[in-house]
Amino acid sequence: MFPLETLVSFFTASVLLAAAPGPDNIFVLTQSALQGPRAGFVVTLGLCSGLVVHTTAVAIGVAAIFQTSVAAYTALKLAGAGYLLFLAWHAFRASAAKITVDTKMRMPLLKLYRRGIIMNITNPKVSIFFLAFLPLFADPARGPIALQIMGLGVIFIFSTVIIFSAVALVSGSLGQWLTRSERAQKRMNKLAGMIFAALALSLLIDR
User: Which parts of 69-144 fold into alpha helices (H)?
Assistant: First the structure.
């Protein structure tokens, strides 16, 4: 369904965005450091379960918008470019986060899974980001938009599982490194900012 070039660029962007410091991967990091990698894997499964909900909602919504009006679909992509530029601006301005491991954050595994789902589903920024990000790689000439969005969502979730699982596995050393190195966090934020800006530019020049 997707050309190899599109798959590679989308997967690469997804991996880099998943690796950029944020509330989700920091939560995976802290829980893994506190309770071991298994806790991090459980949190990751919860977060990715929430991503399935967001992906489905965006796929249905984008398909409906495109079927209603090509102009509306174009407006959505332009709005998405604006939002990605907004994210890039915030990423460039972001300061290093203070990462701590609080023993009060210890939770049973089932509760961690539910927490991951709730954290993701109740975060409207995820849906907004998906609305801006996923349509960038969809092309009506390749078939139904909804199926393409779902496919892209699956790839994004797969990349998230890879990165977050790696975070869980190396949580101890990674946590110490990020805690000690504000420069490393700032570089990751700047990398995320460049990715957001590049995606926004792609949307703006896409015809």
Answer: 70-93, 109-121, 124-133
How far is residue 35's CA from residue 172's CA, in Å, rounded to a whole number? 11
Q: Are 175 and 185 in contact (CB under 8 A)?
A: no
Domain ranges (residues) in the chain: 4-205
Q: Is the pTM of this model over 0.90?
A: no
> Do 185 and 96 form a contact (C-beta atoms < 8 A)?
yes
CB atoms within 10 A of CB 4: 7
- Is the distance from CB of 167 to CB of 160 less than 8 angstroms? no
Q: Which two tokens stand for residue 23?
A: 């509330």
> Quick one: tokens of 62?
């984008």
Instruction: Check whether 105 has a pLDDT greater than 60.
Output: no
Could you read off the pLDDT of 138-192 as tens digits, one per residue?
Answer: 887 888 888 999 999 999 999 999 999 998 888 755 655 555 556 666 666 677 6
